[in-house]
Amino acid sequence: MGLYSSSRGPLASALLLCFCMLFLGVHGGSRRLYIVYLGDVKHGHPNDVIASHHDLLSNVLGSMEDSLDSMIHNYKHGFSGFAAMLTEDQAKQIAELPDVISVQPSRRCRAATTRSWDFLDLNYQMPNDLLNKGRYGEEIIIGVVDTGIWPESRSFSDEGYGPVPSRWRGKCQVGQGWDRNNCSRKIIGARFYSAGLDEEELKKVDYLSPRDKDGHGTHTASTAAGSVVEGASFHGLAAGVARGGAPHARIAVYKALWQGVGGTDAALLAAIDDAIHDGVDVLSLSVGGFSDNSFGALHAVQKGITVVYAAGNDGPSPQTLENTSPWVITVAASKMDRSFPTVITLGNKQQIVGQSHYYLGRNSSRSIFRSLEYGGLCTADALNGTDLKGKIVLCATPNSPTGNGPSAIIGQAFQNVRNGGGSGLIFIQYTTDLLQEWVGMPCVLVDIDTGKKIRQYIKAGSSPVAKIEPARSITGKDILAPKVASFSSRGPSPDYADIIKPDIAAPGASILAAVGDSYRFESGTSMATPHVTGIIALLKALHPNWSPAALKSAIVTTASVTDERGMPILAEGLPRKVADPFDYGGGHINPNRAADPGLIYDIDPNDYNHFFGCTVTKISASCNVTYVPGYFLNLPSISVPNLRYPVSIPRTVTNVGEVDAVYHAAIESPAGVKIEVEPSVLVFNAANKVHTFQVKISPMWRLQGDYTFGSITWYNGEKIVRIPVAARITIHDSFADVA
Ligand SMILES: *[C@@H]1O[C@H](CO)[C@@H](O)[C@H](O)[C@H]1NC(C)=O
Ligand SMILES: *[C@@H]1O[C@H](CO)[C@@H](O)[C@H](O)[C@H]1NC(C)=O
Ligand SMILES: *[C@@H]1O[C@H](CO)[C@@H](O)[C@H](O)[C@H]1NC(C)=O
Ligand SMILES: *[C@@H]1O[C@H](CO)[C@@H](O)[C@H](O)[C@H]1NC(C)=O
């Protein structure tokens, strides 16, 4: 059972998990869907591109007829390639052709606010903040690749919007429950993608159209760009003004994920290909497990589109990150300064506080005392033979840390208690990250000390009882925040060890946003991703000429590593600890500082080919670039996973602040490592806007070591431009421990 697979079905859960099953062909057992990637578009008009794909395919398959039969989708705008049903032999033959960069099976992927913007100090009552400077994201087009959208939500009202930007080249694709008039000046385009899936099957479980049955896409789109909606709440909890990060940005919908079904690489790539054609400025993908096809995002970035991806919800285990290509922004999830205290009254009048999203529904107009039972781990075995009818059951997390912490266990416990006829669950664990809407009965999270008190009461009394009050929501400065959420996937990147991932953390726990006609809490890096998307839209409005790398640099170098009191940001997990760059990259996003970062670390998008061409395309014939470690790429971070000898790494910074500026370097060396920066003073003026400096990183000992962390900060008395550094001293090539 996945992390958020409560009773609401797999896609309703907060993120999209790839089960990485290969798609098996429907015609003949041996054919399956492959993605053939051919690089840049070379033939001009899309029809010529398609014709060239058919030429290539019919040469291998023997006839144009077979080619037409096998072809599922042509990629023709942002990059060239196609998805086709092929046998393994045919795929091999195609991979041998000189023009072909890669051939990969298409994998199946599956889907696993109010307060958050004030928490980030993006408040529309403050005239000088990024929200106002970025004119609420007007003129910016955000592409959301997800489960579609619910156009009737108040969050997508187009009242007061000017005409659709003239550069827009997208479409409003009609379908089940979706008319041309469902596109508007807010939802300016909408398409859907079923490549590799059976449309007849999709119709049974979802709308065969951009309309969102699941809710995930509506939630993420309204978080990135929802209009201002007064009085949004979830049954009174977290009441306030709901809006997206860039509330006037236009939304382009690319539905490539389907309720209960998920999506395919072939469909996601088709969405990205069209989004490049249509003219989006930012692409938001709260999608997991998109394995080897990061070339789609690479083409988008090379055309100036910032691509923002979820980091995954498989934390707190290390090396669980997804979507870690250097050219995208990989987003971790944090918890913010809001909590939902829920009072539990025991039969001895003792009051205990946990957290939940419990509210009184139609059937339960008031809270009453119910029998209380200790259910141990609340596995089916543990509860077998116990009468749970009408009772509140106390369940515990196992003492030994399991891979995914309590997240995997709580869903099972909830189901077992409910199946046994229970009417409430109190779950003992170390984190409140599992808060969510549990349907059917209250589910209160309590910490281990509190859980112990309840157990003592149960042991002492002869007929223990308890009463659960509905949750309240409280916000503000007396709650330690932010913290990296325990479910947020952790680095280092399993794919690119020599860069730091994730890039940034943003609020992603208990986020209230639109689902259908109402508002609902969801948690996940899926929810953190559109926060970053919205902020990128505002930054792009403010700095239209900045590249995706410059925009990323702005948010990474200005991110917070402490809270406003100077206390270090923590990461939930086993154990809870001070967060490091493998939890949150540069830190927690700080949009107002990102608006004016002082210096940026920019990257020529062609450099990505130079550094990563061979690893991305996984084919040697067309890739004769000698491998250069990723840490030589001008990223706003440095990670050296195999530090044996001193290494000198260049970085180049561009002044985007006051023309005349003098910056000094402040170095925090990782333990066991010495960092020197040369020169350590950079003088910028009208003639010198760009400076390159060398970072010399040396191991202090001969050691088969572990990752340690530091930073390099440029400051000029006003601006602070900080990049994280990770280094691991090694002697041997092989190492087992990366935690
Ligand atoms: C979407 O189209 C349907 C069918 O025409 C219509 O009933 C509905 O009101 C439309 N919704 C919006 C927001 O325009
Ligand atoms: C509320 O009670 C009605 C009638 O007893 C029942 O049909 C319905 O399923 C209940 N709803 C919930 C959410 O428990
Ligand atoms: C409960 O335990 C009994 C006796 O050990 C066993 O026969 C039965 O299958 C168990 N039920 C479940 C649901 O595991
Ligand atoms: C491969 O290397 C050769 C010689 O260095 C060079 O001329 C050629 O352009 C390179 N090809 C590609 C595709 O980079």
TrEMBL record:
Domain Inhibitor I9 per the UniProt entry, residue ranges: 34-110
Domain Subtilisin-like protease fibronectin type-III: 633-726
Span of the signal peptide: 1-28
Span of domain Peptidase S8/S53: 137-562
InterPro entries for this protein: Peptidase_S8/S53_dom (IPR000209), Peptidase_S8/S53_dom_sf (IPR036852), Peptidase_S8_Ser-AS (IPR023828), Peptidase_S8_subtilisin-rel (IPR015500), Peptidases_S8_3 (IPR034197), S8pro/Inhibitor_I9 (IPR010259), S8pro/Inhibitor_I9_sf (IPR037045), SBT (IPR045051)
GO BP: proteolysis
One Pfam family here: fn3_6
Active site location: 146 (charge relay system), 216 (charge relay system), 526 (charge relay system)
Molecular function GO terms recorded: serine-type endopeptidase activity
Keyword terms: Hydrolase, Protease, Serine protease, Signal
CDD domains: PA_subtilisin_like, Peptidases_S8_3
Homology family: Belongs to the peptidase S8 family.
Protein name: Uncharacterized protein
